[in-house]
Amino acid sequence: MVQVYEQYQLPRDFEGFGADSQDCQWPNHARIAVSFVLNYEEGGERSVLEGDAHSEPYLWEKGSSGGHREARYLNAEQEFEYGSRVGVWRLMRLFKEYGWKITIYAVARAMELNPKFGEYCTKDAGHEIANHGLRWLDFWDLDLEKDRQYIKDSCNKLQKITGEFPVGVYFGRSTVNTPGMLCEVYKEMHKEQGTPKLLYSSECYNDDVPYWVDLPYEKDLPDNEKEGMLLVPYNYDCNDGKFHMAPGFTSSAGQLYTQYLISTFECLYREGGKMMNIPLHSRITGKAGRSEALREFCEYISKKEGVWVTTRKEIATHYRERFPYKPGSRAGGVA
What we know:
Layout: E1 32-40, H1 74-98, E2 103-106, H2 108-113, H3 115-125, E3 128-131, H4 144-162, E4 168-169, H5 178-193, E5 200-201, E6 211-213, E7 229-231, H6 255-271, E8 274-281, H7 288-302, E9 307-309, H8 312-322
Helix pairs in contact: 1-7, 4-5, 6-7
């Protein structure tokens, strides 16, 4: 039974920024902020070895034809292992080649099983660790207290494993209450543990720029005590997971993938002041053929002027400094 708590229900917004949109005024007069996001899930997926009822049927090479088994399914297991053994390092070499920092949506169990990768991200490459959950599973039906504890446990475990406390969150499989309570739980942890407050949430897909939301549980506070929540939108349309979803990118070889990324970039670049998401998975784009398609896109944007390739943490930090929270305003104020 799904429990709905009104104080955590974020309202729908059909107006957004309207005809003029929002110019985020990126640093150094950049026309676009590009956010590569690696969803690192390998080892956190469903597996009978982890106590689950069946193997993982979702987002691996055989797609919907792969199915699942109520036993070990080596085909699925080893597809995920390819991502952690090979694919992730291929992608890391690519971003190192261009000197770009990216955001890792990190599943705690996956990072635990590949500690060298976590160490590389935080100590060598300087990539951002964001919270993608304890495991790569739905938790839509947790009760309120278990939901709150899930947020705390995933933050603490990622800090223990990687040495970095995640200031950004994208679960993607949460309860209806989770997105609206993130700031409150982070604030509790800040008081109890001295950990950072929430910098941003990416639990939204409804814009091409960051924006502020008022938090329902703060509605009765004086304006100077309200903190609001900054949302840094994510997307599905540029997500490499579409190689295993209908209608997908049509060709598993990846050429149409490159074309779509370039088209998206060109539109947002022309409009100016926007951000572009490129969601990745090491078991998908980390495959040789698709990594070459991704490389083509990287090479394309590397030759453009005014492109800021950065982490979501840096995007959120910039937006907060340039447009601090103002109750009732999507855009925020002007610092």
